[in-house]
Structures are given as structure tokens and as C-alpha cells.
Amino acid sequence: MDFSSGGFHARPARSTSLRWRKDEGAFPCFLPVMTDRSAKPVLPGAFRLLLAPLPLAPLQFALQRLVTSVGQRNPGLFTRLGKQGERVFLVDPTDIPFVFRMIPRRDQPRITVLRRDGFGAWDARIAGTLAALLGMIHGAADGDALFFSRDVIIEGDTEAVLALRNALDDAEIDLVAEMAAMFGVRGEGVERIARSLVPAASRLTGLTLTRWDRS
């Protein structure tokens, strides 16, 4: 959808989907396979089973550090949200066993990792596969097309979701760079190693792990 001139215009999205197969060979793994139907890749059940028993505290700690670092490195990101920064956003990657409850306040952005059975109240919900959400963050997928095709579903305060989406688009966030920055002076080496691993990890998972122009 394009909101730039009043009303909206749907942009055509390429209709694709992925299914998962187990490769034959010495090192079996799950690989995304393109079909002619619609949707973004869904993480295979094996990955979800591995994630389900993980304790939330380490993930919570890492993500809060990441969100704090992103805010410090991109001071305009949360500032431009204005009053929308007080809204409670539920980011719901539908193919993993966690959800993320985020309050993007300008001075103290907060993110909480929760199990699916206890995420509480929210003002706006953004739901889609992890691949669709990461693709939108990294600019590899058109957010308007994802909304129109319902690969990403928004509920609740639509104005707040659009404000957050526009802020992220303008900031051009790259999660590899942002995670490396948390290591301070060692960040450059960490980023170099991470980027060498990204192509293989992306092929294995079907996820857009960095911005296309920085991989």
C-alpha cells in the first residue's frame, strides 16, 4: 500500500512461497524450496523444536542490549515516533515459539521476550514469519506489499505501526552491524567474521540476515 498521496494504492507483490525438504547427502539439512504459491519461508519444525526449550533470560538480556545500542547509534529512530513511542508493540514472528513486547520510548526503549501463552495486553500487533519481518527490517521486502499480501498482518493501532515502520525504513537498520557495535572496539572484527558467515546462514534458513547492499 502506498499512503503518500492520500488513500492507498496496492503495489503488486511477487507471489512465492517456500516449502522445506530434507536434503539427501552426507550432511542433511533443511533448505527452502520455491513453489508457485504465496508466502514467505517458514522456519522448519526442527528449528522450532530447538528454540522451544531455550531459557528466555539470555535472549532477553541480549535483545535489550541490542535495542539500547540501536537507540544510541540512531538517536532519531525512536525520537521521531513522538507519542507513538509510548505504545506497546507486540512483534509476533509466527514460526518461532517466542513473541517480543516492545515499548520504543525515546529515552528508554524496552523489549521483553515472552512465551506465546503469556504476552499480556498490547496496542499494536505486527505478525508474520520471521523471514517476512527480517526482510522488511532489512529493506529486502516491500512492507506495503507484505501488508497487502497478508504475509505481515497488523492489528490494533495502525497509525503507530506505520510510524514505526517509517522510522525503521529511514534508519536503514542492519542487524549484523548493530550487533557487532555492541562489542565496542572489537566490533569491526566481529562484524567481519559475521558477514563471512551470513551467506551460508541465509541459504540454510531462508532469512535475510543483513541489508542486501551490505552483505
Overall description:
- By secondary structure, this protein is α+β, with helices and mostly antiparallel strands.
- Helix content is 40%, strand content 18%.
- The protein is built from 8 helices and 7 strands; from the N terminus they run E-E-H-H-H-E-E-E-E-H-H-E-H-H-H.
- The strands form 2 sheets. A 5-stranded mixed beta sheet has the order 5-4-3-6-7. A two-stranded antiparallel ribbon has the order 1-2.
- Strand 3 and strand 4 form a beta hairpin.
- The longest helix is centred in the C-terminal third of the chain and has 19 residues.
- It is globular and about 40 Å long.
Largest sheet: 5 strands, mixed
> Given the C-alpha coordinates, what overall shape results?
globular
**Beta-strand percentage range:** 15-25%
Give the strand order, joined by hyphens, for the main sheet: 5-4-3-6-7
In angstroms, what is the radius of gyration? 18 Å
- SSE order, as H and E? EEHHHEEEEHHEHHH
Count of separate DSSP helical elements: 8
Into which percent range does the helicity of residues fall?
25-40%
**How many β-strand stretches?**
7
Instruction: State the end-to-end distance.
Output: 28 Å
Mean pLDDT: 82
Contiguous runs where pLDDT drops below 50 for at least 5 residues? 1-38
Broad structural category: alpha+beta
